[in-house]
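Annex B. Sample input.
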Amino acid sequence: MPEIVLTEEQTKQLVGAVARVEVKDTSGRVVGHLEPILSPEFIAELKRRAATPGPRYSGAHVQARLLALHAEWDRTGGFDAAYAKAFLDQLEQADPEKYGPKRSQ
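Annex B, continued. Sample output.
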Protein backbone atom coordinates (compact mmCIF):
# COMPACT_ATOMS: atom_id res chain seq x y z
CA MET A 1 0.00 0.00 0.00
CA PRO A 2 1.35 3.50 -0.83
CA GLU A 3 2.35 5.62 2.13
CA ILE A 4 2.68 9.37 2.68
CA VAL A 5 4.66 10.73 5.62
CA LEU A 6 3.38 14.07 6.92
CA THR A 7 5.57 16.89 8.08
CA GLU A 8 5.42 17.81 11.78
CA GLU A 9 3.24 20.84 10.97
CA GLN A 10 0.85 18.77 8.84
CA THR A 11 0.59 16.19 11.61
CA LYS A 12 -0.32 18.90 14.14
CA GLN A 13 -3.06 20.20 11.84
CA LEU A 14 -4.48 16.73 11.31
CA VAL A 15 -4.33 15.71 14.98
CA GLY A 16 -6.19 18.90 15.97
CA ALA A 17 -8.90 18.43 13.34
CA VAL A 18 -12.45 17.72 14.47
CA ALA A 19 -13.94 17.79 10.98
CA ARG A 20 -13.11 16.22 7.64
CA VAL A 21 -9.79 17.46 6.20
CA GLU A 22 -9.47 18.18 2.49
CA VAL A 23 -6.10 17.13 1.01
CA LYS A 24 -4.82 19.07 -2.02
CA ASP A 25 -1.81 18.85 -4.28
CA THR A 26 0.56 21.78 -4.84
CA SER A 27 -1.68 23.18 -7.57
CA GLY A 28 -4.73 23.22 -5.27
CA ARG A 29 -6.48 20.21 -6.80
CA VAL A 30 -8.34 18.06 -4.26
CA VAL A 31 -6.74 14.62 -4.12
CA GLY A 32 -8.60 13.19 -1.15
CA HIS A 33 -10.16 13.61 2.26
CA LEU A 34 -9.16 12.45 5.73
CA GLU A 35 -11.70 11.81 8.44
CA PRO A 36 -10.64 12.78 11.97
CA ILE A 37 -10.29 10.16 14.65
CA LEU A 38 -12.37 11.42 17.57
CA SER A 39 -10.98 10.19 20.87
CA PRO A 40 -13.30 8.92 23.62
CA GLU A 41 -12.10 11.86 25.74
CA PHE A 42 -13.10 14.36 23.04
CA ILE A 43 -16.53 12.75 22.65
CA ALA A 44 -17.03 12.80 26.43
CA GLU A 45 -16.13 16.51 26.49
CA LEU A 46 -18.67 17.24 23.73
CA LYS A 47 -21.36 15.39 25.68
CA ARG A 48 -20.45 17.30 28.86
CA ARG A 49 -20.69 20.62 27.03
CA ALA A 50 -24.02 19.69 25.44
CA ALA A 51 -25.44 18.93 28.89
CA THR A 52 -24.54 22.35 30.33
CA PRO A 53 -27.16 25.09 30.46
CA GLY A 54 -26.83 28.15 28.32
CA PRO A 55 -27.90 29.64 25.04
CA ARG A 56 -27.54 27.54 21.90
CA TYR A 57 -27.13 29.29 18.56
CA SER A 58 -27.80 27.58 15.24
CA GLY A 59 -25.38 28.00 12.37
CA ALA A 60 -27.86 30.38 10.73
CA HIS A 61 -28.01 32.51 13.89
CA VAL A 62 -24.22 32.66 14.15
CA GLN A 63 -23.88 33.60 10.49
CA ALA A 64 -26.55 36.33 10.78
CA ARG A 65 -24.82 37.75 13.88
CA LEU A 66 -21.39 37.75 12.20
CA LEU A 67 -22.76 39.42 9.06
CA ALA A 68 -24.46 42.08 11.18
CA LEU A 69 -21.25 42.68 13.17
CA HIS A 70 -19.27 42.98 9.95
CA ALA A 71 -21.73 45.49 8.51
CA GLU A 72 -21.65 47.51 11.74
CA TRP A 73 -17.83 47.42 11.77
CA ASP A 74 -17.78 48.75 8.20
CA ARG A 75 -20.37 51.41 9.06
CA THR A 76 -18.63 52.67 12.21
CA GLY A 77 -14.99 52.05 11.33
CA GLY A 78 -14.51 49.66 14.23
CA PHE A 79 -15.54 49.18 17.85
CA ASP A 80 -14.56 47.50 21.11
CA ALA A 81 -15.94 44.37 22.81
CA ALA A 82 -18.40 46.32 24.96
CA TYR A 83 -19.92 47.97 21.87
CA ALA A 84 -20.10 44.59 20.10
CA LYS A 85 -21.95 43.02 23.04
CA ALA A 86 -24.41 45.91 23.28
CA PHE A 87 -24.95 45.80 19.51
CA LEU A 88 -25.64 42.04 19.58
CA ASP A 89 -28.02 42.47 22.54
CA GLN A 90 -29.95 45.08 20.53
CA LEU A 91 -30.09 42.79 17.49
CA GLU A 92 -31.42 39.93 19.58
CA GLN A 93 -34.08 42.11 21.18
CA ALA A 94 -35.15 43.53 17.82
CA ASP A 95 -35.33 40.15 16.02
CA PRO A 96 -34.95 37.13 18.33
CA GLU A 97 -35.92 34.67 15.60
CA LYS A 98 -33.04 35.79 13.39
CA TYR A 99 -30.35 36.66 15.96
CA GLY A 100 -31.35 34.98 19.22
CA PRO A 101 -30.48 31.59 20.64
CA LYS A 102 -32.40 28.48 19.69
CA ARG A 103 -35.30 27.84 22.03
CA SER A 104 -35.77 24.41 23.59
CA GLN A 105 -38.66 22.48 22.18
